[in-house]
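Researcher: Please predict.
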Amino acid sequence: MSDITLFRNGRILTSQGWVRNGSLLVQGMRIMDIFKTDETIDGDVRIIDAHGGEIVPGAIEIHAHGGNGHEFKEATETAFQEALNAHLYHGSTSIYPTLASTDLKTAEKVIEQTTLAMSHPGSPILGLHLEGPYLSKKMVGEQSAEHVVPFHPEIYKEIVRSNKCLKRWDAAPELEGAEEFGSYCIRHNVMPSIAHTQATYQDVYNAYEAGFTHVTHFYNGMTYFHKTESDKHEGTVESILTIPEFSVEVIFDGIHLPPAILKMIYVLKGIEKIAIVTNSHADMGIKNPGNIRHTATTMDAMIQIAVKKVGIQFEDAIRMSSETPAKIMGEHHHVGILRKGYDANICIYDTEANLKFVMQKGTIIRNDFPAT
């Protein structure tokens, strides 16, 4: 089979907007060119007919704990591959496995497995995301409370120094030592993110000054505006909104947050500061799972929810799932948009926002179009 693929008969979403009646050429793992006309290539070429659909960049999942019945915390090759398969099938062509608060031994195993998985040619993994253990004990949510601990500089500094796979680490900024933690992460190219917190405005501002620029599952696991018997107080949410430089990730399932709140975040932050995430666990990708923990919604389903329930334009939903997370994580030089020389991470949706096709680095993962 040829390693050259030509996409035709669909709108192509580029960083400059839609290309209509154009074509896109892939060779191997890369995009070779995007044409503004319907090109014909001589020789052994695989043709993908988009059937009038939308040819868009694959999603970048920056917060995912698992899928297909497995969690990344299992730290086995099988668990990783099964979870990755679930995300790939549903349109996430780049992934940051996420590990919630756990013991040090488990964390070391996950780091080792992530490093190994990233070494494989064509791996969709861009790095590891640690969600804890430096979180507020009053806002643990589904985290393991027994593993939520104060900052331990000797431990986190050793982990950051020794493991190039680590790209992001979440923490509650009100904890003693948070500013030092954030500054240390930034100096070693690890993005610190605000999470599971009761932070006040001053805590949030201090965190921003120390290098925190991102917020984990915005609104969830943090305080809102509230009042006591004698006073009224801004919450972490409002404090974050006062600093426009913060990017936020949002679970667009309509369950963690209702559509009206999702629309409000979209209006207030804009597409260049919002990343759609699934926050998925093992039940994601399983048909008719039993005890659903509201962590089973897939990326392509979230894009549909954004469009059909929240009222966001399809193009904006795609950018919030691809271009924006690529920029947040500093990977926008090779993923997140369709451009010559970039990774051939390509999805096709029909005009009703149904995912029909997935390619990851030149390999077809899913093709629901009829054979021609």
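Model: The domain at 4-56+340-367 is CATH 2.30.40.10 (Urease, subunit C; domain 1).
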